[in-house]
Amino acid sequence: MEVTKLFSVKDQTVLVTGGSRGIGKMISEAFVRNGAKVYISSRDKKACDQTAAELTAFGPGQCIAIPSDLGTDAGIDHLVTSLKERESKLDVLINNSGAVWGGGFEAHTEKAWHKIMDLNVKAPFFLIKRLLEIMDRNSRIINIGSVAGCLPQPDIGTFAYDTSKAAIHHLTRVLALELAPRGITVNAIAPGFVPTKMSKQISTATGLGMDELAHGVPLQRAGRDFDMAGAAIYYASPAGAWVTGTILTVDGGQIGAASAGFSGASKL
């Protein structure tokens, strides 16, 4: 197969939750630029609408906003209903919406714990469950995890977030087994340090500047938009058709180095 076809996502219908900014926006832009129809969702209607207009201008694909708060049952219901009214088939579901809560052990109230778990774990599970009706044997599910779900992150205090990302990694493996008979693949991307609004909170928590955090990565740089986009397109294209139940760490070598015992590699 030609390389252009091997990694093609042209004419796919894609849903990216949390697609209005950060990693979700990076991934959404790549799909639009490569000819897909991309639906994005976030609870911020203004940001969602602005991003949809911005990405559609890139073409040749298009981006459509469906603002929804996926931290609530009503928000999940709104997104599912709205998408099904527009589409009879979904090729790719990318569960990217997420929240973080820092401040250390004492700051993790029950309310904070439930907020993180509802958005980071509960919402992806029930979106998958309810959208299976419009997915077929060629559909792909991509969950966005984190290196924080692979190794403990010292001095940050993001207990609920780290736990939720470990949960989404294992949920990915469980659902891959469950949905394999249907021909639906389920994989995850575990990003490392990528400059986003969320990563700025890590900078604040550690007292390290963004450049200092990037120097803690073995490849000596932060993640870029094409790093995130490339991983997602691989999973969604024919190239990733025989891959399921995997957690792809896209982190500049952070997890590999930390697992080998190199100091300083797991400071993100």
UniProtKB/TrEMBL annotation:
Keywords attached to this entry: Hydrolase, NADP, Oxidoreductase
Pfam families in alphabetical order: adh_short_C2
Keyword Cell division: no
Source species, domain of life: Eukaryota
Single GO term (MF): oxidoreductase activity
Gene3D superfamilies reported in the protein's UniProt record: NAD(P)-binding Rossmann-like Domain
SUPFAM superfamilies: NAD(P)-binding Rossmann-fold domains
InterPro entries per the UniProt record, alphabetical: NAD(P)-bd_dom_sf (IPR036291), SDR_fam (IPR002347), Sec_Metab_Biosynth_SDR (IPR052178)
Family statement drawn from the similarity comment of this UniProt entry: Belongs to the short-chain dehydrogenases/reductases (SDR) family.
Protein name: Glycoside hydrolase
